[in-house]
Design a protein that fits this description.
The protein has 255 residues and is an alpha+beta fold. The protein folds into three domains: 52 residues, no CATH class; 44 residues; 144 residues, MucB/RseB, C-terminal domain (Phosphorylase Kinase, domain 1), CATH 3.30.200.100. The chain contains eight helices and seven strands; from the N terminus they run ααααααβαββββββα. It has a seven-stranded antiparallel sheet, with helices on both faces. The longest helix is centred in the middle third of the chain and has 26 residues. Keywords: Membrane, Transmembrane, Transmembrane helix. This is Anti-sigma factor. It comes from Methylorubrum extorquens (strain ATCC 14718 / DSM 1338 / JCM 2805 / NCIMB 9133 / AM1).
Length: 255
């Protein structure tokens, strides 16, 4: 039997292996439980990413980028310069109108719904990372708080969940469509990881806590004094909800 390679594992996750090779990989994973767990994490990550970005991938290709449209455009005779300029202006105006109409039809997520989607996407990317899930370690929690406060232009703290059995691993800054956000990661003695995302909201004030789901992950998102929070993990919502309430209580105390 040929050695099992990284390409074989990725093809196994993507369901691209022939039946004979698939059986060999399955047999190999049975004898190597660590790799088997890694493959399951890869599958879960793929499911989470598809859940987070599936709506974007499902959007239709703009008509002006359709292959048949591009081929036809190449076949047309070139217009004189002044006519080409006029056509470009009309196309731009039409594109702007179409883009504005797109905004009214697609109803992009806003508020804590957008925050929940961003938190789920970042959980899918960083929670499975075994090499460098955070930029600053828990020992630098004061530096984390200063870093986040400076970049978010808001004074923020680092919630302590140790009394609930979760230790702080550290954090990092991440990009979102609504600006920078602070990401904190926690885990328990089983290695179960949670991610909390926080960023300023477009609207000041508070928003009630609501549950959200993406693939195998669940979460709770809310806003408090214009700052949004979302806690995400693969844990039971019965576990996550008290933790989210604890974070909301402690951050209210510290603001």
């Amino acid at each position: 039997m040929r050695p099992i390679t990284e390409d074989d594992l990725q093809a196994f996750v993507d369901e691209r292996l022939e039946a004979a090779r698939k059986a060999e990989v399955e047999s190999y994973l049975t004898r190597h439980p660590d790799l088997s767990r890694r493959v399951e994490r890869m599958r879960a990550l793929g499911d989470d990413l598809r859940g987070a970005f599936g709506p974007v991938a499902a959007e239709p290709v703009p008509a002006q980028l359709n292959l048949a449209h591009l081929v036809e455009a190449r076949r047309r005779p070139r217009l004189p310069t002044w006519q080409a300029a006029a056509a470009a202006v009309l196309l731009a105006l039409g594109g702007l109108g179409g883009w504005g109409l797109r905004g009214t039809l697609s109803s992009p997520m806003t508020g804590v719904d957008a925050l929940a989607q961003e938190a789920s996407a970042n959980y899918a990317v960083y929670a499975p990372d075994r090499l460098r899930p955070v930029e600053l370690a828990a020992s630098d929690s004061d530096e984390l708080a200063r870093w986040f406060s400076a970049r978010l232009d808001r004074r923020v703290g680092v919630p302590d969940l140790s009394s609930s059995g979760y230790r702080l691993m550290g954090g990092r800054l991440v990009a979102t469509p609504h600006g920078p956000a602070g990401l904190l990661m926690y885990d328990d003695h089983h290695g179960t990881r949670l991610v909390m995302l926080m960023r300023p909201m477009a609207q000041p004030g508070d928003a009630p806590m609501r549950e959200h789901r993406s693939g195998s992950a669940a979460g709770y998102a809310w806003a408090q004094d214009g700052l949004g929070y979302s806690l995400v993990g693969a844990s039971d919502p019965a576990v996550l909800h008290p933790l989210a309430n604890e974070i909301r209580r402690t951050t209210a105390t510290n603001t």
